[in-house]
Amino acid sequence: MARRRHHEEHANHEAWAIPYADLMTLLLAFFVVMYAVSSLNEGKYRVMASSLANAFSGTPRTLDPIQVGDNTYRDASLKEPVPIPSGARRGPGTSSPVLDSPLQPMLESKMRTDRIGDGAALDASRRQLARIALQLEDALSEMVQARLITVRRADLWLEVEINSDILFPSGSATLDFGAQALLGRLATILRGLPNPIRIEGYTDDRPIRTAQFPSNWELSAARAASVVHLFVREGLAPERLVMVGYGEQRPKADNASEAGRNANRRVVLMVLAEPESTEGRPIGAPAPARPVAADALPAVADERALPSLPPHPRGET
Q1: Alpha-carbon torsion 143, 144, 148, 149, what sign?
Q2: Which of 224, 229, 234, 277 could disulfide-link to 201, CB 3.0 to 4.6 Å?
Q3: DSSP code, position 282
Q4: Nearest in space to 258 (alpha carbons), one of 176, 159, 170, 182
Q5: What is the pTM of this model?
Q6: In angstroms, rounded to a whole number, what is the distance separating the alpha carbons of residues 159 and 36?
Q7: How many CB atoms sit inside 10 A of residue 117's CB?
Q8: Cβ contacts of 84 within 8 Å, gap of 6 or more
Q9: Bridge partners for 162 per DSSP
Q10: What CATH number should be reported for the domain holding residue 250?
Q11: Confidence of residue 139 (pLDDT cuts 50, 70, 90)
Q12: In whole angstroms, how far apart are CA 287 and each of 244, 280, 291?
């Protein structure tokens, strides 16, 4: 009798699909429920973002956390509130300015008005500086054409840049005879003006180590002082004059070449605007020192009560 063959049943390899589909359904239902019960608080989100920005950058972006509401800027001179753009909420440490538009022109105008009074005073200042510039260019036309003197004008000041080589010998702060005549012509124009004048001295980067000038700081300051003394002798009021020496710290050209070093050796006269500020003095003029009562001054120690210093090891004082 023949034996009956036993046929093996085929295995169902798709059995995993059913629990996998159930798992996906459960996960979908879970995320739907989580999304339904969650609510985003924009105010808390902004506070958290500001805190994280402060922690990582070290620069606060806002004085207070930004609250949710109508972001508008109200000004008494404006009939309607002006919306603050998104760039206005950026602070230091960002590439965008604090105020982009439309408030930036308004604030710049307000800042300028606070400094010089009003628009009429600004126009008067511009006209006065333009007249002074024309007078200086006419008086120094030969030097201007030779590019030894440069006259530049801005809204609140006028610059007269003079190459030091036509004023001083190398390594010296003594004015040449020709330089005295040149500065005398400048003093003749500036003598009758009320504008404050700032004299700045600059040098190249070549070091100087002499008993009179240990560094370029002393040389640049001494050259500016020489110009100040000449202006005082020519009749300019001393209280109008301010001097400063920058040494080689602010070059206008590369010191690697002789032409660059020559351009960096210069004296700059800055004639500041005439209109008075809110403090009652010309723009740019230094604030006068307030008088102090004698009884408010600190007591000066008696020299006889001071301890004697030990002698210097080399016997120098």
Answers
A1: positive
A2: 224
A3: B
A4: 170
A5: 0.53
A6: 69
A7: 17
A8: 71, 72, 73, 103
A9: 149, 267
A10: 3.30.1330.60
A11: confident
A12: 16, 10, 12
The residue type found at 20 is Y
- CA distances 139 to 23, 132, 142, 145, 164, Å, are 93, 11, 8, 12, 19
What are the percentages of helix, strand and coil residues in the chain, rounded to 5?
Answer: 40, 10, 45
β-bridge mates for residue 276, sequence order: 282
**CB atoms inside a 10 Å sphere around CB 17:** 9
Cβ contacts of 268 within 8 Å, gap of 6 or more: 159, 160, 161, 162, 199, 200, 202
Classify residue 239 as exposed, middle or buried by CB count within 10 Å of its CB (0-12, 13-18, 19+): exposed
| pLDDT digits 0-9 by tens, 263-291 | 999 999 999 986 454 444 444 444 455 55
Number of independent structural domains in the chain:
1
DSSP alpha helices (H): ranges in 241-308?
A: 258-264
Asked if residue 223 is part of any domain, the answer here is yes
Per residue in 194-252, pLDDT (tens digit) is 899 999 999 999 999 999 999 999 999 999 999 999 999 999 999 999 999 999 999 99
pLDDT in tens, 24-50: 999 998 888 887 777 656 666 677 777
Query: Which domain, by its residues, includes 261?
Result: 119-272
Task: Indicate whether 230 belongs to any domain.
Answer: yes
Alpha carbon distance 60, 86 (integer Å): 17
Residue 166 belongs to a domain: yes
Q: Is residue 105 part of a domain?
A: no
Interatomic CA distance for residues 241 and 191, integer angstroms: 11
